[in-house]
Amino acid sequence: MPDIQILSPHVADLIAAGEVVERPASVVKELVENAIDAGARTVTVEIRGGGMTYLRVTDDGCGMAPEDAGVAFLRHATSKLRDARGLESIATLGFRGEALAAISAVSHVELLTRQQGTASGTRVTLSAGEIEEMYETGCPEGTTMIIRDLFYNTPARLKFMKSDRAEGSACVLAAFRCALGRPDISVRCIRDGEEQFFSPGDSRMESCVYSLLGRDQAAKMLFCAGGADGVKVEGYVSSPGAGRGNRSAQHFYCNGRVIKSAALQSALEQAYKNTLLVGKFPACVLYLTLSFGAVDVNVHPAKTEVKFTQEKAVFDAVYYAVRSALERESPAAAVHISAGTQKKTEPRADFYQTMSAAEYRTKQSASAKREVQYAPPKPYPAPGISTNTTFRSPTVAPAAPVRPPMPRPVPAPAPRPEPKSAPQPVQTALETFEEKAPAAVPEQKARIIGEAMNAYILIEKGDTLLLIDKHAAHERINFDRLQKQTDPLMSQTLLSPVPFSPGGTDAEVLRMHADSLEQMGFEIEPLSGDDFMIRAVPEIMSEKDAAAALEEICRDLRHGGELDVHAARDEILKTVACKAAIKAGWNTAPQELLPLAEAVLSGEVKYCPHGRPVAVTLTRKELDKLFLRIV
């Protein structure tokens, strides 16, 4: 008896069905795509019992003739592909002719179809792929497919199905993705008698995104458009402040087809680099349009994975389109400062740590010849509201630490003394800055009204209150400035080297990135085993932060995995910028708050390098609600 057997057509159909129909959601996807290919303008999806007991898809497409309805459920029967050359340029969502055959092989099917312009339609019923009835009937123009008892004849597959709730949610998601990819088609989804979503089908992307994603999420999306080299990109991406915990909200479409692409995912997330909070992912709805011959969709049974002939061109098109959208997120405001304000709030020359190498060496040499004495900080006035720009709670007894000057080229830093001049009231210490606007638009005033908790700058602008995290804002300014430097960062030699003993993994990270650390101003001498000696740090950093900075750098580089030189440099710069920034809790002079506020108001600074928002806005309406002035 021979060992090799030829399987029966029925068994072969069941095997093929397992490749195409994994669960009810697969049926929804295939039937909705068939409706779209048929030229439908409206599609209705209805499911009951998670799609296992009842699933119906109705469309107003072209319908089928009686002779086509009889052969539509045969394997590899399709109206969308004529010969092998058609595979080189596939313009339809379906093309293999396997979906209906696979679905009918594992369910009871009822088909109602009528061609446009004909007097009557056709009704076909099937069980396990075999036609039971076929006759002329009255029905609306278009096609209705009803699937009952899915997997009733394949108990092995049936036992792996999840609960009705889980399968129903997957069906809704499949219909949702199809609807989101075609703003020109109205899609309605009904689950157990309740409408889950409805898209208007008015061909407007914004209407589609709003109706399907909801008002709250749509409000956080930014319009995105661009393209080059035959690739067009349009759609919406989320604001960096609206990052999500996973990638489930990333939707990519290529010529109307929902796809999965590691290249597009990477291009999207690279565009958010240094603006998105660590551990968060951007959301997007991106529509790619390119020639049908430039993309191969025949690489996976589910047709969701594709290959691009020019993957770099597609990557660049998405990357630069998203980058331009993020840069346009908040238009830069031209901030005007009066001459009087400039004179009163002139920032210290060393606020941004700028000096030439020659000036630094001269200053360091001079400081070595004399011992600098700092006066101890003056005690804070009696509890109550301060007349300075900082407001302190009456219950806070201990004074906040006083910020030392920057930069500090001399060893043994000490607290900076309080200003000797008497503080002025808030209204006169910092004057109003005005935003330049067209003559037709009334000017909005923006004024610094103080600092809360030695951490947040308070700015009143029209009917909004802006709270700025001074540390995050200064950190971003430091990072952007350091990132633009092409020369190695200047370093300061420590009079007392700091021992550093990381774990074995971090020690390996230090050795691996030794060159990058040296370029950033660190001088680290390896000793025996996993012990090191820190002999120099970047000149904008304090020596007391040396060990903590290296620990943070090692952690970030370790979590980043295999990083190239540029990515490793950015991770190091994030930590250097953070350690060099003014800290929450430090006393900050008004003239130092002004440049930070100006950078935020102008749109230059939006997020810290780690992705945290720099500013939060409270409207007058939100404040009135908090105080129950309005309901």
Q: Topology of this structure?
A:
Blueprint: H1 9-20, H2 24-37, E1 42-48, E2 54-59, H3 66-71, H4 99-105, E3 108-114, E4 121-127, E5 130-137, E6 142-148, H5 155-158, H6 164-181, E7 186-191, E8 194-198, H7 205-213, H8 215-219, E9 221-228, E10 231-238, E11 250-254, E12 257-259, H9 262-271, E13 284-289, E14 295-296, E15 307-308, H10 311-327, E16 335-336, H11 339-344, H12 357-369, E17 390-391, H13 426-429, E18 433-435, E19 445-452, E20 456-461, E21 464-469, H14 470-484, E22 491-500, H15 504-512, H16 514-519, E23 523-526, E24 532-538, H17 546-559, H18 565-580, H19 590-601, E25 615-619, H20 620-626
Parallel strand pairs: 1-7, 11-13, 17-19
Antiparallel strand pairs: 1-2, 2-6, 3-4, 3-6, 4-5, 7-8, 9-10, 10-13, 11-12, 14-15, 16-18, 18-19, 19-20, 20-21, 21-25, 22-24, 23-24
Key words describing this protein structure:
alpha+beta; Ribosomal Protein S5, domain 2; 7-stranded mixed β-sheet; formyl-coa transferase, domain 3; 8-stranded mixed β-sheet; 22% strand; Heat Shock Protein 90; 4 domains; 631 residues; elongated
Structure description:
This protein has 631 residues and is an alpha+beta fold. The protein folds into four domains: 9-198, Heat Shock Protein 90, CATH 3.30.565.10; 214-327, Ribosomal Protein S5, domain 2; 335-368 and 381-409 and 424-475 and 584-626, MutL, C-terminal domain, dimerisation subdomain (formyl-coa transferase, domain 3), CATH 3.30.1540.20; 489-580, 2-Layer Sandwich (Ribosomal Protein S8, Chain: A, domain 1). It has an eight-stranded mixed β-sheet with strand order 5-4-3-6-2-1-7-8. Strands 16, 17, 18, 19, 20, 21 and 25 form a seven-stranded mixed β-sheet that branches. A hairpin with a 5-residue loop joins β1 and β2. α1 (9-20) packs across α4 (99-105) and α14 (470-484) packs across α19. The longest helix is centred in the N-terminal third of the chain and has 18 residues, at 164-181. The protein is elongated and about 100 Å long. The chain starts with 8 loop residues before the first helix and ends in a 5-residue tail after the last helix. Mean pLDDT is 78; it is low at 331-345, 347-353, 369-414 and 419-442.
